[in-house]
Design goal:
The complex is a heterodimer of chains A (279) and B (266). Chain A has 279 residues and is of the alpha+beta class. Chain A has seven helices and 15 strands. Chain A is flat. Chain B has a nine-stranded mixed sheet. The chains are: A alpha+beta (279), B alpha+beta (266).
């Protein structure tokens, strides 16, 4: 608040100056009226008056006041935004904790409660650990396009894959397809070797080709899905690819693509019913 | 004329001082009301979750407040919460502030592990040896709203070509683009989880984080002002602020569903 007091002093000075000026002004008018020759100059008054009336002084003073006002508002805003949340945290602690009370340790009720709680924790831990299968499972990370294969809760292989591109294909007739890999818990519904890709409608729409009939020859493509495929259901699969340079990138229409070596290991490790976790 | 000017200035000075005084009083009032907010929130939590102590169930207050008992209770609360989530078949997040981990789990299986670089939490949650807080933590939190600097699903729209002559094969996606990853997950029971990327390599990223944080503070202040204007204590949101590597922060945000669930161990 130092600047406020300085500002007040400055303004007080100016008010005094003004009064002096007006008195001086009156005196000089009277003097001019009475004597008509010698104007009376109030001590120091004229000089100060001249400075305060100078446009530069007015501009500097206004600027100073403006800056001070802005600073005060800014300080208040910063206080509200940053200091008050800190103050909020200095609320009375609701700590109900107490420790090492000897009488309590001997108390049978306490002992019983502690025993019950320990048993509960053991039971819950066992139950929770049972969720992680001892059998083989695969985890697919669609954000980084990586996979991790586990057997007996141990990581046995990891590497890159390709997952859904998050592209929405839209036709002028407002038909839409979104190419994303579904997330959650899945399992292997089936395993096939030398899979054949039956091209869905969007595959033709994407190229601008006319959509053929359901079992037309042009729908079937051989060798593009690699040597093996694991079926996840709803048309999604884990399969191989001819576009190996895209591994580690989100480029697929929803399926998970792997390179030949990884696919072979995964095919041989996972069984029908094995869990597939996709996130 | 000059006397008038003097009076005008004097009046201006008084107005200025009065305004400053009013603003100061308002700020003091705002601060006091804001400081009351956590106390009121704690009372609400206690009312809803505190353990009922009576002679019939045999648990006396001393037992309930014992640190060893509370430690076990904490562990039990976290396990209970995770089991509830494991049975939901969904993707969920577990935050363990004791060992500084943020993991993604699906049906009880940890599918992604990440280590927090640092974290900050409301005193309310950290001194949460309080049994009311523990009861609150024993059931998972649900995300009600998320505010993030990245999209949940980065969908790109592609118009289908009219014929084969218009068809252009897909080009390789640009994986070098790195966007800043900061987000706030607003949970039920008024809890908020703030996730910030740990790396701020570029100056623009630091600025982006400050801007993101400032926006949230402004929104909170505005809401608090609205309540204080009608003489109501503003709402307090117990928080957990964590810093994670950018890639982990991004994975977590995109992996958990829009109204996903979170288990917290404080």
């Amino acid at each position: 608040m130092l600047w406020i007091s300085k500002l007040s002093e400055m303004e007080d000075e100016e008010i005094i100056k003004d009064n002096t000026e007006s008195e001086g002004g009156q005196q000089s008018t009277e003097a001019n009226q009475g004597k008509n020759e010698i104007p009376v100059q109030p001590e120091n008054g004229i000089e100060k008056k001249d400075i305060s009336k100078k446009p530069l002084f007015v501009i500097v003073r206004s600027f100073f006041i403006f800056i001070c006002t802005v600073l005060v508002i800014l300080a208040m805003a910063l206080f509200i935004l940053y200091v008050v949340p800190v103050l909020e945290e200095i609320f009375p602690r609701h700590k109900t904790e107490s420790a090492n009370i000897k009488e309590l340790n001997k108390d049978p009720v306490y002992k019983k409660q502690m025993g019950l709680l320990t048993k509960d924790i053991q039971r819950l831990s066992l139950r929770f650990n049972a969720y992680t299968s001892g059998q083989s499972y695969i985890v697919i990370n669609t954000i980084e396009n990586k996979f991790a294969l586990y057997t007996n809760k141990k990581l046995i292989r990891e590497g890159f894959c390709s997952s859904g591109s998050y592209t929405m294909l839209q036709t002028s007739g407002n038909k839409k397809w979104i190419f994303k890999t579904p997330k959650g818990k899945y399992w292997v519904h089936g395993k096939i070797t030398n899979p054949v890709w039956k091209r869905p409608d969007w595959s033709f729409v994407e190229e601008g080709s006319p959509i053929p009939s359901e079992n037309a020859d042009s729908r079937f493509e051989y060798g593009v899905l690699g040597d093996y495929a694991l079926i996840l259901g709803d048309g999604y699969m884990i399969h191989g690819t001819i576009y190996k340079r895209f591994l580690g990138m989100p480029v697929t229409h929803g399926c998970v693509r792997l390179n030949d070596d990884d696919l072979k290991v995964i095919y041989n490790t996972l069984n029908i019913g094995s869990k597939v976790y996709i996130y | 004329m000059e006397i008038k000017d003097g009076k005008k200035r004097h009046f201006g000075k008084i107005t200025f001082i009065v305004l400053i005084s009013i603003l100061s009083v308002l700020i003091i009032y705002y601060s006091i009301m804001s400081m009351l907010a956590p106390v009121r929130k704690m009372e609400e939590i206690k009312k809803e979750f505190d353990v009922k102590v009576n002679d019939k169930n045999g648990i006396d207050r001393q037992v309930v407040n014992d640190s060893s008992y509370l430690k076990l209770l904490k562990e039990k609360a976290f396990l209970q919460s995770r089991i509830l989530l494991a049975e939901s078949d969904s993707i969920y997040l577990t935050l363990n502030l004791e060992d500084s981990t943020a993991n993604i789990e699906i049906s009880g299986v940890v599918v992604h592990k990440s280590k927090m670089r640092s974290f900050k939490s409301s005193k309310m949650l950290l001194t949460g040896n309080d049994n009311a807080i523990l009861s609150m933590l024993s059931t998972p939190f649900t995300i009600l709203y998320a505010n993030a600097t990245i999209k949940k699903e980065p969908v790109m729209i592609k118009m289908a070509p009219k014929d084969t002559s218009e068809y252009k094969p897909d080009i390789m996606p640009d994986t070098s683009i790195t966007e800043p990853v900061n987000y706030i997950l607003e949970m039920n029971r008024g809890i908020r989880i703030y996730v910030y990327q740990e790396e701020n390599i570029k100056f623009s990223e630091r600025i982006n984080q400050i801007k993101f944080d400032l926006k949230d503070r402004l929104r909170d202040t505005w809401n608090a002002l609205k309540r204080i204007a009608v003489f109501k204590v503003p709402e307090y949101h117990p928080f957990i602020k964590i810093k994670l590597p950018r890639s982990d922060a991004k994975i977590i945000y995109r992996a958990i569903p829009k109204n996903g669930q979170i288990a917290v161990f404080s």
